[in-house]
Write a structure and sequence with these properties.
Protein name: Stress response protein SCP2
Shape: elongated
Helix content: under 10%
Structural class: mainly beta
Oligomer: single chain
Number of helices: 1
CATH architecture of the largest domain: Sandwich
CATH superfamily of the largest domain: sav2460 like domains
CATH topology of the largest domain: Lipoxygenase-1
Largest sheet: 7 strands, mixed
Order of helices and strands: EEEEEEEEEEEEEHEEEEEEEEEEEE
Distance between the termini: 71 Å
Organism: Calidifontibacter indicus
Radius of gyration: 27 Å
Strand order of the largest sheet: 1-11-10-3-8-7-6
Strand content: 25-35%
Length: about 475
């Protein structure tokens, strides 16, 4: 049976009341439904069916699985009598993207419970809209009919909800992109870890540095350092994360204490002078550009340290968008010898060639309190020619730091169990996909930690190589 093709505004009778609705389009998008009274208003939040509230009277929202897109399963016979319309809404996931930017127009398809095609509508003519009412099911006397709508909202989600009787606050406008200086010429002798993970295509290809030598066998971990996670070779990790249906959680307050630290930090000390020492229980809070000696108050130097990096996804505003987006940020350590890059530790290469720097494994969502990714550094074991270990964060999926909050970098005395010693809290978020967070510097007096906080465009750490000579010491 061939589905009825509906142009915008056209309608058709329905022989069945048990239906499945989908919208096919060449981009990540969500599907939801609005149950409306005769005046085209919802009665309350329960009449909005979406990923965080997937069940409504006579309507169920089903996430993608087994190659199938988002689906709305409808039992129109079970829809309450005071509901006159059920509108099917599709919205693009990617912030700032519009339906006019898609290479092909979305197509709404409706089938019966047994999979028989019933109707379809091509949603053409869309331009600046990011959310669209695709089709609607409405009562006519005692029967139900379907109508192709194709109405988009230039003001996005907030406009759609207000139009249907929901009182929502305005969502903040995204910040303007921060201009970044042109990257200088890449330094010589830059390594690229095994190229099993292809870098995303960008408008201008990043330089292709030469690979660093990898020893035939991994070095033995020093005492006190946890074993590296088991890897099945250095192959690229899959990056598609299935959506989750969960109630949103209230974001934690800025700079949360790590739940596993043996000592709860006391009041923060001001940034110390060059000859100051680190005090147990009083972590130093650094501001951008500040640095601190990594020497304890008993005169000893730190040895095995844990660099913890963390962040929280920004919760989207508005009723339909209370879901917390999964933000795939990656922490990496770039080892410098003067101006030269000599090694890289990241998600596809979890240990440096000499074994002094180890990555504890990848976190692909930013969910949970405390550190999202951890890099262990055995300072006495770092080769003498390495002058800096630069810690960077990149966004593989292209999410910008506007979608991230509570980003921090902190130093923990892992060997002496003195807990958190230094913290750098990143303030604000730029429309960029990379961040040079901090660096450990080798000096005549020992190691120092410097807060950097410089934004850049990079989806993999290798794309930050050309700017590393700016951070060399």
């Amino acid at each position: 049976m061939t589905a009825v093709e509906l142009a915008r505004g056209q309608n058709a009778p329905l022989a069945s009341t048990r239906l499945t609705a989908t919208v096919e389009l060449p981009a990540a998008a969500d599907l939801s439904a609005l149950l409306l009274t005769a005046d085209a208003k919802v009665r309350g939040d329960s009449d909005i069916v979406f990923y965080n509230q997937p069940e409504g009277p006579g309507v169920r929202c089903v996430p993608p699985s087994a190659g199938q897109p988002w689906q709305l399963h409808l039992d129109l016979a079970a829809v309450p009598a005071e509901i006159a319309k059920v509108r099917v809404v599709t919205s693009l996931d990617e912030a700032g993207r519009t339906f006019g930017s898609l290479p092909t127009a979305p197509v709404a398809r409706v089938s019966s419970a047994d999979g028989t095609p019933v109707a379809q509508a091509t949603l053409d003519g869309l331009t600046t809209e990011a959310i669209v009412v695709a089709v609607e099911f409405y009562r006519r006397d005692t029967a139900w009919k379907i109508r192709a709508v194709g109405q988009g909202y230039g003001g996005g989600l907030a406009d759609l909800l207000r139009d249907h009787g929901v009182d929502v606050a305005d969502e903040p406008a995204p910040a303007a992109p921060t201009p970044t200086a042109a990257a200088p010429t890449a330094p010589a002798h830059q390594p690229t870890p095994p190229a099993h993970q292809a870098a995303p295509q960008t408008a201008q290809a990043a330089p292709s540095p030469q690979p660093a030598p990898v020893p035939p066998s991994a070095p033995t971990a020093p005492a006190g350092m946890p074993p590296a996670p088991v890897q099945s070779g250095l192959s690229g990790r899959p990056r598609t994360t299935p959506p989750e249906l969960h109630r949103p959680q209230t974001p934690p307050p800025p700079a949360p204490a790590h739940p596993h630290d043996p000592y709860a930090p006391g009041p923060a000390a001001p940034p110390p002078a060059d000859n100051s020492s680190l005090t147990r229980g009083r972590p130093v809070n650094l501001s951008k550009g500040q640095s601190v000696n990594l020497r304890k108050d008993d005169g000893s130097s730190l040895s095995l340290v844990r660099m913890g990096l963390g962040w929280d996804p920004v919760q989207r505003g508005g009723l339909l968008s209370r879901r917390t987006a999964e933000i795939d940020l990656d922490a990496s350590a770039i080892l410098l010898a003067g101006n030269d890059i000599v090694d890289l530790v990241f998600y596809n290469r979890l240990m440096s060639a000499d074994g002094s720097v180890r990555h504890a494994g990848d976190n692909r969502t930013g969910a949970g309190d405390g550190d999202d990714e951890v890099i262990m550094i055995d300072l006495p074991r770092v080769p003498v020619h390495v002058t800096s270990v630069v810690l960077v964060v990149t966004s593989y999926e292209g999410h910008t730091f506007q979608m991230v909050q509570n980003a921090f970098c902190r130093l923990i005395d892992e060997a002496g169990r003195a807990g958190e010693l230094v913290r750098y809290q990143l303030s604000g978020g730029d429309a960029t996909t990379g961040m040079v967070m901090a660096a450990l510097r080798r000096t005549d007096a020992g190691w120092r930690m410097e807060a950097i906080g410089e934004a850049a465009q990079a989806r993999v750490p290798q794309e930050l190589f050309p700017m590393m000579n700016r951070f060399a010491r």
